[in-house]
Design brief:
Elements (H helix, E strand, L loop, with lengths): L4 H10 L8 H12 L5 E7 L5 E8 L9 E6 L4 H9 L5 E7 H7 L4 E12 L14 E4 L5 E7 L2 E11 L3 E8 L1 H4 L3 H15 L3 E7 L3 H9 L3 E13 L12
Parallel strand pairs: 3-4, 9-10
Antiparallel strand pairs: 1-2, 2-3, 4-11, 5-10, 5-11, 6-7, 7-8, 8-9
Length: 249
């Protein structure tokens, strides 16, 4: 199905606000510009001259069907507050994924919980250190996504997969039971997903909680390194009093 003219025009208008090959912009670029248009709503803020100086995208994802993901950029004075109150429903909870500086600004506008800062790691062919483990198998999920995993006694104890992929990036995740860490099975599944993504010509991104030294050690052993980018995530609720505030027209 072709994209509607309105979202095509919106996406064209905000391209200049993002740097697609910057690891710090990769997630927002995907969700704002490439995510399924039927599951994406864009709200733009414009200057008096009509140029976009900010946007907010709400996205319905497979991981959070009942809690929309919000990604945004806001550069002009008052742009962030205007976008929040124009695009979001008071009293509803949203999962925000934004740069740290925007996360700090949200604290004064929303009721926040589950705040986390993520360190964005990445790797490439010249840095990647393979690790072969014959216990790693692939399993395809109901929506077609592939998971690299290790089972013991019919139970998955380590798994890695892809949260999203664009034409350039792929964001990976790793989940592991504590007993499997001693066997380096988290490394094994991370290596497996990374190897396959590099073979497809994609650059893997691996967000880890900033204070998680174990995850960082595992990633660095496989050739991941710090991109310098940080992402702030939280659950945010617009206070009900926002209904009384003026909004964009």
């Amino acid at each position: 199905m072709p994209l509607s003219a309105s979202i095509q025009e919106q996406r064209h208008a905000i391209r200049s606000l993002l740097v697609p090959h910057d690891p710090g912009d990769a997630r927002t670029t995907y969700y704002a510009l490439q995510h399924d248009h039927q599951r994406t709503t864009l709200t733009l803020h414009r200057t008096e001259a009509g140029h976009a100086d900010g946007f907010l995208a709400t996205c319905i994802t497979g991981a959070h069907l009942f809690q929309p993901l919000v990604v945004l950029r806001a550069f002009g004075p008052g742009t962030l507050e205007a976008l929040i109150h124009q695009a979001l429903v008071p009293g509803c909870a949203y999962l925000f994924s934004v740069p740290v500086y925007i996360g700090a600004a949200l604290e004064g506008m929303l009721a926040l919980s589950e705040a986390t800062i993520w360190r964005i790691l990445h790797t490439d062919d010249s840095h990647f250190a393979p690790l072969i483990n014959v216990l790693v198998t692939q399993e395809r999920g109901a929506e077609g996504g592939v998971r690299w995993q290790i089972r013991t006694q019919e139970r998955v104890v380590a798994a890695a997969g892809v949260n999203w992929r664009s034409s350039h990036w792929a964001e990976v995740y790793v989940a592991v039971e504590s007993a499997a860490r001693a066997r380096r099975w988290d490394e094994s599944v991370l290596a497996a997903v990374t190897s396959d993504l590099l073979a497809e010509g994609l650059t893997p991104l691996y967000p880890i909680v900033q204070e998680d030294s174990r995850a960082r050690q595992v990633a660095e052993a496989r050739g991941y390194y710090d991109s310098g980018a940080r992402e702030f995530t939280c659950v945010g609720v617009v206070p009900a009093v926002a209904d009384d505030r003026s909004k964009m027209t």
